[in-house]
Design a protein that fits this description.
- The chain is of the alpha+beta class.
- The protein has helices at about 20-35, 50-55, 65, 85-95, 140-160, 175-190, 195-200, 205, 215-220, 230-245, 290-295, 310-320, 340-355, 365-375, 385-390, 415-420, and strands at about 40, 50, 70-75, 80, 105-115, 125-135, 165-170, 250-255, 265-270, 280-285, 300-310, 330-335, 360, 380-385, 395-400, 405-410.
- Helix 1 (about 20-35) packs antiparallel against helix 5.
- The longest helix has 18 residues, at about 140-160.
- The chain is elongated, with a radius of gyration of 27 Å.
- The structure holds adenosine monophosphate.
Length: about 425
C-alpha cells in the first residue's frame, strides 16, 4: 500500500519544539514578568475578532489592514479576522466590559499569537508572538515613561544589552493635521514617482519612511513633526525624556520614525536590535489618544507596546545569551527491571508532588543507555534502582556533577535529593480563601 503523504505546517508559521521551546517560553515569561512588576493585570482575548475592529482601530490605509490580514467569512456569514495586533482587541474588551469605569489608568498585559500575511523571512513570520501592555485613561508623561521603562527592564532582565531605544513625538489631534498639510505641500514639490505621490496623498508620514536612498536624499529638508509640536505636546515629550534620563534608560530621539499602525499620537517608540538584520524591530509602541473614541468608547487616552517574542529570542541568541533552564528535569530515574520500574513510578510521583522536577527512563533499557538519557536530560541527580536495591529497600542516588553516589533508604530519597539540589525555588502555592 502506498504511504500517505505527510503534512507540513503552513508557510511562514513556526513550530516551537524542544529544546528551543524552553527558551521561547522563558523569554515570553520574562517579558510578562516585567509588566507584572509594574502592576499590569493579565488579559486573555480571542485570537479572532470582527473584521471592523481592525479596519477602524488599526486604520484602513495601513499595510497591516490593507495587505496582511487573515480575513474570512465564517459559517454565519460574518467577516472574521485573525488578530494582527493586540491593542484594538484590548480596547474593545475594555469598552465592552466597562473596565474604564473603574480606577484609571486601567493597566493590562497580554501575550499570545498574532497573524499577518507577510512574506516570510528570518524574523518575519505569518504567526508570531507578542507580549503587550496597555495603560488606558491617563496622559501623564510619567505613564509614558513607565511603559517604555517596562520594555527596557524586560530586555534587561533577559540580559540583552545590544538594542537601541528610539523615540519621538507624533503630535496630537491639533498639531498633526497642520503638520500633515505642511508635509504634503513639501512632498507635492518633489519629483516623486506616481505610487509615492499617491502614498503622499493618503498617508504622507509613511513617505518619510521610504527606504530608497534616492527618495531619502529628496527628503533631507522635509519638515519634521518634532519641529512643529504645539507647546503642550512639546512639553509632554520633554517630560517623558526627563523621566527616562533620571531612570538612566538610554534612548535616541529619531524624528523620522514612522510606525506601521495609524493610531499612534504623541510619544511613539521602538526598540531596535542591529544584530537582527532586515527585521530589526524588537518591539514598539506609543500613545493612542484617539483610539478609544474611534472604537465607540469614552475619549480616553492610552499608551502601550507590543514586544515581539520571536525576535527577542533571536536577539538573545545573537548576543550569545542562554535564557531559561535548559534542563528538562532535576532528577532522572533509571530502573533496572520491572519491579524497579513500578517502584520508581512511586518514588517519582512523590518527588514531583514535593515540587521536584523528575523524569525517568522506560522500557527496560540497559544501564549505559539509560545513564546517557540521564545526562541528556540535564538532570543533576540520577536515581538508579536495581533489583538488589529493591530487596534492601534502598536506591542509589548519584550526583551527576561530582560523580559521588551512595545508597539511600527509600523513605529518605526526598531529603537526600534536596541536600544535593540546595534550596528549592520558592513557589506560591495555590490556596483556598479562608
Ligand atoms: P508592531 O505590532 O508592528 O508594532 O510590531 C511589534 C513587534 O512585533 C515588532 O517589533 C516585532 O518584534 C514583532 N513582529 C511584528 N510583525 C512580526 C512578524 N511578521 N513576525 C515576527 N515578529 C513580528
Amino acid at each position: 500500500m502506498a504511504g500517505k503523504t505527510t503534512i507540513s505546517a503552513p508557510k511562514g508559521v513556526p513550530d516551537y519544539i524542544p529544546p528551543a521551546s524552553r527558551t521561547f517560553v522563558a523569554v515570553r515569561d520574562m517579558l510578562v514578568a516585567a509588566a507584572d512588576r509594574a502592576g499590569y493585570s493579565p488579559i486573555e482575548l480571542p485570537v479572532f475578532e470582527d473584521t471592523a475592529l481592525f479596519t477602524r482601530g488599526v486604520g484602513e490605509s495601513t499595510d497591516v489592514v490593507s495587505k496582511e490580514m487573515y480575513t474570512f467569512t465564517d459559517r454565519g456569514d460574518r467577516s472574521i479576522t485573525l488578530r494582527p495586533e493586540g491593542t484594538a482587541g484590548v480596547m474593545r474588551a475594555v469598552i465592552e466590559h466597562g473596565l474604564d469605569r473603574g480606577a484609571l489608568p486601567v493597566k493590562l498585559v497580554y501575550e499570545g499569537p498574532f497573524f499577518r500575511s507577510e512574506a516570510p523571512q528570518a524574523g518575519r513570520y505569518r504567526q508570531f508572538h507578542q507580549v503587550g501592555i496597555e495603560a488606558i485613561g491617563s496622559d501623564d508623561p510619567a505613564l509614558d515613561a513607565e511603559v517604555i521603562a517596562v520594555g527596557h527592564e524586560a530586555y534587561r532582565a533577559i540580559g540583552l544589552t545590544g538594542y537601541r531605544l528610539e523615540l519621538t513625538s507624533l503630535g496630537d489631534a491639533v498639531d498633526r493635521p497642520a503638520y500633515r498639510e505642511k508635509l504634503q505641500a513639501f512632498l507635492a514639490g518633489l519629483p516623486l514617482d506616481e505610487a509615492t505621490r499617491e502614498r503622499a496623498k493618503l498617508n504622507p508620514l509613511r513617505v518619510l519612511d521610504d527606504k530608497r536612498p534616492a527618495v531619502q536624499a529628496l527628503l533631507s529638508d522635509a519638515p519634521l513633526m518634532l519641529d512643529h509640536l504645539s507647546s503642550g505636546s512639546g512639553e509632554h515629550f520633554r517630560q517623558v525624556l526627563a523621566i527616562l534620563d533620571r531612570l538612566a534608560v538610554p534612548y535616541v530621539v529619531n524624528p523620522r520614525m514612522v510606525r506601521g499602525l495609524d493610531y499612534y499620537t504623541r510619544t511613539t517608540f521602538e526598540f531596535v536590535h542591529p544584530l537582527l538584520g532586515a527585521q530589526s524591530g524588537l518591539g514598539g509602541g506609543g500613545r493612542y489618544d484617539g483610539l478609544m473614541a474611534e472604537l465607540g468608547g469614552q475619549p480616553l487616552s492610552g499608551i502601550g507596546f507590543g514586544l515581539g517574542v520571536d525576535r527577542t529570542v533571536l536577539a538573545a541568541a545573537a548576543e550569545g545569551l542562554t535564557v531559561g533552564q535548559s534542563a528538562r528535569c532535576e532528577v532522572y530515574g533509571v530502573p533496572m527491571g520491572e519491579g524497579a520500574s513500578r517502584e520508581l513510578a512511586v518514588i517519582a510521583g512523590r518527588l514531583r508532588a514535593a515540587g521536584i522536577r523528575v523524569d525517568r527512563s522506560y522500557g527496560g533499557r540497559g544501564l549505559k543507555a539509560a545513564m546517557k538519557s540521564a545526562d541528556a536530560s540535564g538532570a543533576r541527580i540520577a536515581l538508579v534502582l536495581g533489583d538488589r536495591d529493591l530487596e534492601q529497600g534502598t536506591v542509589m542516588v548519584k550526583d551527576l556533577l561530582s560523580g559521588d553516589q551512595h545508597p539511600v533508604a527509600l523513605d529518605r530519597v526526598e531529603s537526600a535529593v534536596r541536600d544535593i539540589l540546595g534550596d528549592p525555588t520558592p513557589t506560591v502555592p495555590a490556596h483556598r480563601p479562608e
